[in-house]
Amino acid sequence: MNKTKLTLENLGYGEYFESERKKLGFSKYPVARVIAEYREAYWIRSANGEFLARITGKQMFIATKREDYPAVGDWVVITELEEGKALIRGILPRKSIIKKKYSDKQETQIIATNIDIAFIVESMDRDYNLNRIERFLVITREGKINPVIILNKTDLISESDLNFRINQIKKRFTNIDIITTSIFTKNSVFDLKRFIKAGKTYCFLGSSGVGKSSLINKLLGKDEIKTREISISLGKGKHTTTSREMYFMESGGLLIDNPGTREVGISGSDTGLVNVFDEINLLSRDCKFSDCIHTSEPGCAVIQAVKENKLDEYKYRNFIKLKKESEFYKLTDLEKREKDRKFGKFVKKVLQELK
Ligand SMILES: Nc1nc2c(ncn2[C@@H]2O[C@H](COP(=O)(O)OP(=O)(O)OP(=O)(O)O)[C@@H](O)[C@H]2O)c(=O)[nH]1
Ligand SMILES: [Mg+2]
Ligand SMILES: [Zn+2]
To answer: 97: closest CA among 39, 133, 141?
Structure first.
């Protein structure tokens, strides 16, 4: 736990949240930031320190979906109780949100909220994969968050291989910053460190094992995460992160670590897709039908562009694949009912607890 005092500004608070707080009539309650999430409880940090918090019964009643519950990164209004406990009375409207689902069967997860920049971490070992970068770009764009690509473990490849990959990425994704890092060479997180600003929140995304926690440890200047995970890592030789949590850099940057998964899903609307594939979006204006989905329609300008090599075939295929996943995820009625049932149980349990 970080014992040094942090002001609200240090924690990322600003005008936007303050005006939302006023609008909602929450001015008399102190604000705090959610820095970790447990089952039905939250670790929050206010100007007065850290608290273990729960949401009020009233809030639970109003809640109908995952988004109605606090998530790491949220600004909440609270009432402080004794012994380091607090009650969360409401969530201030979010500036941004990163969501994903782990599999087609599971419901959406909120990775983090109120993020200024998402670092999409890829490792330069065999695991390296452009389509995966693209998937992460979709979820960040959907959440209105600026992405930055980090190529980690540069110690594992030659400089010319690295340059080749950087060019490949630049060609496929225009206008995105790329930072290279390695935790095993001198000054190797220098560029990353320079990028991070006080009072801004950064979320680390990427598959398991790419080095998200290692990079955060480097930025913190101490092995804060490894020690927290020691019991899990014992005997495994690996410290896979199991929960989301915010860490505080001495220079003021706020870093959110996040467990990596093998698969990244796309949730919700497909505006993110449109953003990532600007090119396809532009081409589609010339499709014969306005509701063309660019798979087999006559007069499809996108398919035509692929045929004429004006559009990268891989990009096209990935677009179709991601779009399918996105569509699949628009919940069926059955799935929605299932969710409501689960929620009903949850409320019942809480009510019993309150008795
Ligand atoms: N060679 C090399 N190995 C690295 C580098 N960064 C991290 N690693 C190693 O990669 C392994 C995984 O690193 P983690 O930081 O646990 O990866 P993670 O992304 O946090 O993984 P999850 O928590 O499972 O999502 C560890 O054994 C690290 O020592 C690097 O720059 N170079
Ligand atoms: Mg980790
Ligand atoms: Zn088309």
So the answer is: 141
**DSSP string covering 17-28:** HHHHHHHTT-TT
Answer yes or no: are the C-beta atoms of 21 and 91 closer than 8 Å.
Answer: no
List average pLDDT for each run of 10 residues in the chain, which is 355 residues long.
72 95 94 88 91 84 82 95 89 92 66 95 80 87 92 91 93 91 88 94 90 92 58 42 84 90 46 57 83 85 88 78 59 51 61 59
CATH numbers and ranges of domains, the chain: 15-91 (2.40.50.140), 97-257 (3.40.50.300), 271-329 (1.10.40.50)
Residue whose entry in the numeric block shows the structure tokens 């670092």: 119
135 lines ligand 1 (CB under 6 A): no
The token pair at 38 is 């447990």
Whole-angstrom Cα distance, residue 242 to residue 150? 21
Please name which ligand lies nearest the alpha carbon of 233. 1
Phi, psi for residue 347 in degrees, rounded to 5? -60, -45
Q: Give Dmax (Cα) for the chain.
A: 69
Q: Coil, strand or helix: which one is 92?
A: coil
pTM of the model: 0.74
Answer whether 228 contacts ligand 1 (Cβ < 6 A).
no
> Measured between alpha carbons, how far is 347 from 329 in angstroms, rounded to an integer?
26
Give the whole-angstrom CA distance, residue 5 versus residue 251. Answer: 13
User: What separation in Å is there between the alpha carbon of 294 and the centre of ligand 3?
Assistant: 4
